[in-house]
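Design job #97: recover the sequence.
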């Protein structure tokens, strides 16, 4: 008699699609010295900003550049700042071949911008909290363990439980509303706006797919990092007293990140 027990065994391996958080570094020059200088000016004062984060090199701006990209030098520079270049996109056939020879894989082209609805900008305050532009555009799905806290309804993801360090929630194509604390080390990401009706102490990334009209709102601004459409600010730069620990919003004015009281 045939033994059918094997059919009842659970597989020890599942194969599933995964959307992982990456940082997109958009290069705008093929000059290695210029790129090294730019990286140093942006990241030398924040050596702990990255923690071996995977990096996607975006070549769309230099696609038609006459000079070659020195991928070996670029990869070495990026690794100096605790990143791990893994993929490349947007380059010419020659650029993509050169990148592949350095161990980088070809990534899909960027997804279209999600529901970017223009909004009228409020007048800038006299002393706005601003930040320099940075070509860092994280994109991610909710991390394991965070799904149970979120429900989706009409383009809005609602989280009603505290997010602990290491947890992450991503509202793909939607706004994100958090009704509990976002702790240090936790991360909330949305393609649209982020509303946190509690202390925001972790990272908040709105407009993750390039929506420059996205905003971040919180009843208690204590974030480690805030970012809109790839332009970010960390709390290594002290927040002004008028927003620190208070109700505040974050928005873009051109390429300037403003943090204002509500």
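Job complete. Output follows.
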């Amino acid at each position: 008699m045939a033994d059918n027990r094997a059919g009842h065994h659970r597989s020890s391996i599942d194969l599933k699609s995964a959307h992982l958080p990456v940082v997109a570094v958009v290069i705008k020059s093929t000059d290695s010295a210029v790129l090294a200088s730019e990286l140093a000016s942006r990241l030398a004062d924040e050596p702990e900003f990255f923690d071996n984060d995977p990096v996607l090199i975006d070549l769309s701006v230099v696609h038609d550049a006459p000079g070659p990209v020195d991928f070996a030098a670029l990869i070495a520079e990026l690794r100096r700042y605790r990143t791990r270049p893994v993929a490349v996109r947007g380059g010419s056939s020659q650029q993509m071949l050169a990148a592949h020879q350095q161990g980088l894989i070809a990534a899909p082209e960027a997804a279209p911008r999600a529901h970017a609805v223009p909004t009228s900008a409020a007048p800038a305050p006299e002393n706005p909290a601003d930040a320099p532009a940075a070509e860092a555009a994280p994109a991610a799905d909710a991390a394991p363990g965070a799904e149970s806290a979120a429900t989706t309804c009409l383009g809005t993801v609602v989280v009603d439980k505290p997010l602990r360090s290491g947890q992450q929630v991503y509202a793909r194509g939607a706004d994100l509303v958090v009704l509990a604390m976002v702790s240090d080390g936790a991360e909330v990401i949305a393609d649209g706006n982020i509303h946190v009706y509690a202390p925001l102490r972790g990272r908040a990334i709105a407009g993750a797919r390039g929506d420059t009209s996205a905003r971040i709102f919180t009843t208690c601004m204590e974030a480690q990092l805030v970012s809109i459409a790839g332009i970010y600010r960390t709390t290594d730069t002290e927040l002004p007293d008028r927003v620190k620990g208070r109700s505040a919003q974050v928005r873009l004015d051109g390429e300037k990140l403003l943090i204002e009281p509500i």
